Amino acid sequence: MFALAESDPGLSKKDADPIEEQLRAALLKAQYSRLKQKQRALLIVIAGIDGAGKGASVALLNEWMDARHIRTLAFDKAAGCGKARPFLWRYWNHLPAKGKTGIVFGSWYAPLLKEAARKKPKQKKIQRLAKAISQFERTLAQNDVQIVKLWYHLSKQAQQKRTEALLSSPDTAWQVRPESLKVNKKFVRLRDAAALTLSQTHADHAPWVVVPAADTQVRDVSTGRAVLKALRKQRTKPSDHAASSPEPTVSRPAPSLDELDYHTKLADDDYDALLPHWQGRLARLARDKAFEKIPLLLVFEGQDAAGKGGTIRRITKALDPRQFRAIPVSAPTEIELAHPYLWRFWRDLPSPGQIAIFDRSWYGRVLVERVEGYASQTEWLRAYDEINQFESQLQNSGAVILKFWLAIDKDEQLQRFRERQVSPFKSFKITPDDWRNRKQWDAYLQAANDMFARTSTPGCPWHVLPANDKRHPRIAVLERIVTTLEAKLEHQKG
Amino acid sequence: MFALAESDPGLSKKDADPIEEQLRAALLKAQYSRLKQKQRALLIVIAGIDGAGKGASVALLNEWMDARHIRTLAFDKAAGCGKARPFLWRYWNHLPAKGKTGIVFGSWYAPLLKEAARKKPKQKKIQRLAKAISQFERTLAQNDVQIVKLWYHLSKQAQQKRTEALLSSPDTAWQVRPESLKVNKKFVRLRDAAALTLSQTHADHAPWVVVPAADTQVRDVSTGRAVLKALRKQRTKPSDHAASSPEPTVSRPAPSLDELDYHTKLADDDYDALLPHWQGRLARLARDKAFEKIPLLLVFEGQDAAGKGGTIRRITKALDPRQFRAIPVSAPTEIELAHPYLWRFWRDLPSPGQIAIFDRSWYGRVLVERVEGYASQTEWLRAYDEINQFESQLQNSGAVILKFWLAIDKDEQLQRFRERQVSPFKSFKITPDDWRNRKQWDAYLQAANDMFARTSTPGCPWHVLPANDKRHPRIAVLERIVTTLEAKLEHQKG
Question: What ipTM goes with this model?
Answer without folding.
Answer: 0.84
